[in-house]
Amino acid sequence: MKRALLLAAALVLAPAAHAQSVADGSKAHPLRVMLIPADGGTETGTKADYQPVFNAVSRMTGLNFDLKVGQSYGAVVEAMCNQLADVAFFGPVAYVQAHRRGCAQLLAVGVEKGESVYYAGLFAKADAPIKSVQDVKGRRMAFGDVNSASSFTFQVAMLMDAGLDPVKDLSAIRMTGSHANSLAALVQGQVDVASLSFDSYEKAVKQGAVDPKTVKVVAKSMPIPYPPLALNAKLPEALKARLKEAFATVHKAPGVTPDMIRGYGGKKVDAFDTRFSEAEFNVAAEKLALLSDELKGEILKKAAER
Predict the structure, then answer these.
(1) Do the Cβ atoms of 171 and 304 come closer than 8 Å?
(2) Which CATH class is domain 118-224+293-304?
(3) Which of 78, 122, 134, 243 has the CA that lies 20 to 30 A from 159?
(4) The domain at 2-116+226-275 falls in which architecture?
C-alpha cells in the first residue's frame, strides 16, 4: 500500500504519455530527471540547485533534460524503479534503497576540496538549554523526510547512540518533509530541535531564511557520502557511458563557468566524481539498518499525534 501511494505521487509528476515515450535525450523525448525535495521542492529549492549543471551538460552533449522535483524521497525511488525517471538526485539512504532494488546505478557525486562528504546536524535556538544530544530528551523534535539520510536517518541514529529512545524520549515529533521545513519549524517555535544537513542550513542562512545568531549546533554527524546523482539501471550502456563522461569533464568544458558547477544545496563544487565507489555508501546502509520498519512506524505514529 505504501509503495502504491508513493508511485501514485510519482505519477503526478510524470504524465502517462510522457512516461510511455522513449527518453533518448532528444528535444521530443528529453531525459527525465527526478530530484528529491531536499529543500522543499520549490523552484528556488532543489530544482534551481541542479538546473545549472544539467544546462552545462546539455550544452556539452546536445542531450536534453526535463527536471522535476519529487513529492517525497520515496516517490523519487519509486519513479526510478518504475521507469518514470532516467536520472535522479538522491539522498544517500534513498540511493541505497533504489540500488538494492536494482533500479539505480551511481552516476556522480560532487567533489569539494578533494572530498565527497557532507554532514547532518541537530540544531536548536541559540538561547535554548540544549547543549548535547542527551539534552534533547523530553524535547519536541522536527525531522525532514523519513527516507532522508541527513534529516532523519543519521539524527535518529545519533539519538540511539546517545542512549535515547527516539520515540519514548521525545515529547513530540514533527515530520516536516524537507530540511528547509524542519529548520522553519524551529525558527517558528514549533519544535525545540531541528534535523537537517549543514548544507541546507548554510543555504538557508545565505538566503536570509534564518539569522545564524539565533540558532546553534547541538550535534554534528560523522561524514556522510555526498548525495549522489544516479542513472536508471535500464538505460542503454552507451548512454550511461556518455553521461558519465559528461559529468566527469563538465567542469573543464569550454563555455562552462564555475558558477554552473553546483551540487547539493546549490553549493558550488569543484567537479563531479564518476568513479566514486559504491562501497562508500555502506555507512548509509549501516545507519539505515538500525532503523527497523517497526521503529519507523512508531516514529510516524507519534508524529501523527497532535
Answers:
(1) no
(2) alpha beta
(3) 78
(4) 3-Layer(aba) Sandwich (3.40)
Pairing of strands 120-125, 193-197: antiparallel
Closest CA to 196 of 149, 159, 232, 235: 149
Where do the domains of the chain lie?
2-116+226-275, 118-224+293-304
Q: Do domains 2-116+226-275 and 118-224+293-304 have the same CATH topology?
A: yes
List, in sequence order, the alpha helices (H) in the chain. Answer: 2-12, 16-20, 46-61, 73-81, 92-100, 154-161, 179-187, 198-206, 237-249, 282-290, 293-304
Contacts for 30 with CB less than 8 Å, ≥ 6 apart: 23, 63, 64, 65, 66
d(CA 220, CA 197): 9
Q: Each residue of 244-294: pLDDT tens digit?
A: 999 999 999 999 999 999 998 888 999 999 999 999 999 888 988 889 999
pLDDT digits (tens, 9 = 90+) for 94-148: 999 999 999 999 999 999 999 999 999 999 999 999 999 999 999 999 999 999 9
CA distance 272 to 108: 6
Q: How far is residue 148's CA from residue 130's CA, in Å, rounded to a whole number?
A: 24
DSSP assignment, residue 188? T
| Residue type (1 letter), 59 | R
Q: For residues 118 and 234, is the Cβ–Cβ distance under 8 A?
A: no
